[in-house]
Fold these 2 entries.
Entry 1:
Amino acid sequence: METILTGIRVNGELTLGNLLGALLPMVRLAEKYKSTHRVNVFVPDLHTIIADVDGDLQANTLKSLRYYAAAGLDLAHENIHIYRQSYVPAHSELCWILDTVATMGEMGRMTQFKEKSEGRDSANVGIFNYPVLMAADILLYSAKYVPVGEDQFQHIELARNLAERFNHKYGPTFELPATTAEQAAFMQGLAVEGKKAAGIRIRDLQNPEKKMSKSSQAENSKIMLSDTPASAAAKIMGATTDSVGKVQFDMFNQPGISNLLSILALTTGDTLESVSARYAGETNYGDFKRKVAEAVELFLADFQVKVAQTPDQEILAAFTRGESYANEIAKTKLLDAQRAVGLR
Ligand code: TYM
């Protein structure tokens, strides 16, 4: 059985963009493949602490699982393994071993590192090193598919390079994850922006050139999963559009309207093609926005009810089961690596 593996950091409250762009596609993927693949969904809590944490880390971890469950992830399925990274010590241990095959040069070229550190001397070393930890996350489970957004593709390439270099130096130990082109092809079924296979990028409601981001100062630019459904609807009504006067999917010339079409498709479970066809010829942006606002209001109300419904015991039981599984697999692979290096 091949393994699909992924994780989302939870540094605080998530946006509708995180949900529709990453979490929901991931859950759909898990549901599609759970009978034929191992699906590892983990909480990268060690990654989380490279940045400030809003609120309580434990509470955020539980909440993230509640979000997965509300989005439809089957926490009790035998092929779905849910675990917290820090509860599987092999991740940190393999990270150290891989650190000794990674080079300063390649790590310094990581775009995420450059963006997050902004050249500051005061940036923490975790920001520099976390792609190596991510490689350990992947290689410990011989994961083939790692569904992530495009911003993380460089880290998958790094995991492949480190595995290859390690195998070359110490003998065959790690299986390489699929190339980014293969990853993209695997995720293709989930893409709504045509060729951009790495999923959906939900845009900022006030400035649709940018992605919807939690860190945006303007409250109206983002919908938080904790917003009341009515205020979320009001934010949709206030979203920036354009002066073209036609409802059509054209990310380049009409990013605002295209974003609303994506949101409508994802919140109603429809395809982008079908919602685009339904509104083809619509010239009244107010009427169109009202439909999107209604869909978001219904979706969020339903989602929030489901979030409240998942009991903590169910989540904790999933963690306990998943962590016992993950420790078994990870320990064995770590031992292979330790033996190869000569530590055991
Ligand atoms: P993180 O937590 O920053 O992001 C989680 C996932 O969300 C994707 N993403 C988006 N996708 C679409 N539209 C957006 N606006 C958007 N913003 C973020 C990211 O690409 C990512 O897939 N290092 C990882 C977490 C991680 C991981 C792993 C993932 C740690 N170890 C091993 C996979 C496998 C991270 O910080 O993602």
Entry 2:
Amino acid sequence: MNYFSYQNGVLSAESVSLETLAREVGTPFYCYSSETLTLHYKVFSEAVPKDSLIAFSVKANGNLAVLKTLGDLGAGADVVSGGELKKARAAGIPAERIVFSGVGKTRAEMKLALSERIYQFNVESEPELELLNIVALEMKTCAPVCVRINPDVDAKTHAKITTGTAETKFGIPFVHAREIYKKAASLKGIEIVGVDVHIGSQITDLEPFGAAFARVAELVKDLRIDGHAISRLDLGGGLGVPYERNNEPPPDPEAYGRIVKHATATLGCRLVFEPGRLIAANAGVLVSEVIYVKQGDAKTFLIIDAGMNDLIRPAMYDAYHEIVPVREPAPGAPRIAYDVVGPVCETSDLFAADRSLPQLKSGDLVAILTAGAYGATMSSAYNARPPAPEVLVKGDEWGIVRARQDHDDLIARDHLPGWLTS
Ligand code: LLP
């Protein structure tokens, strides 16, 4: 469910026409809907046990206004860098709702997180555990730790976003879990608080979740037998969203919640979740203008002013995104199979191949849907193209929540060393 719909023939975010926004802001731009973010957060939080911490995964959408919208609803943040931690704090998310994941936390990031007194570190390796212990002791404090366990479960998602199998860099292999907890218990700067698992992203089948949660639930029991105080269970994120209108939609949060409750009901742990895509993906669109329609020998190219630097998912994961005209097409309007491409000088700058769309012309607007997660956060200035700005809508109000950089900003980031200026 989302709040993008045609109103008076124009695609709108809540009550704001995307045509109006394009005129005011210029194209391309991201547009997010507050009501959709809110709805998704509420649906998820109602599906899982009441006192759970829902730590929105900042990597999915790190815009301060998005983070504040969610934080005001009670969300925490799942961060993977000092930068994300600072953004979450800057958006007003209290430290006691922040969890820090990731395989490569540096000493400086640990110091920052310890000084902020975040809720928990999800530790992914023995060397990380050792360094965290040292840093905590230096700071005369103790780090609350969940160890991320790699349950060796195949999430059956795209290879580039699967994390729970033995071949990936993530977590501690399940078979070594009890050893690392034993080690953690011997370190004075570490306080064991729970267990963490995250098996991948855009997961559309509940079975791998069920298998992974059952494994970690068993582990919780074993760790308690070993004498560890396990009071939290972080079940990560990963629930998929519908990208393709004609595909069967992925399981809804209620069904996911039932799997969670089934696996964890008797454990008495506070649960932590790290959803990203589920909350943000369908709360955002990327609006772009058609620059040219180019007739090739084999294809008709719709060349739009958004590029792979703005939204890299199709190029990187062969991801499918619906593309719709901003002006509602008349019923039965003639359709053409387009290759929808950006201006970037790469063959992979292709948003959709052979996509049947109503006939379009230069100057028309299109919206690339389900772009609110891993869109703007993965954008770059490749080809010296400043990434698309971001707009947040609420009802009939809207605001630019990240401005478009101009070329001078881009140029000003580079500096000439002395020998090139003399
Ligand atoms: N927690 C951890 C430890 C993660 O690594 C991730 C995502 C999440 C939570 C949030 O997962 P979600 O609920 O959003 O599925 N760029 C890729 C997705 C990469 C996901 C990385 N980790 C894409 O555009 O599909």
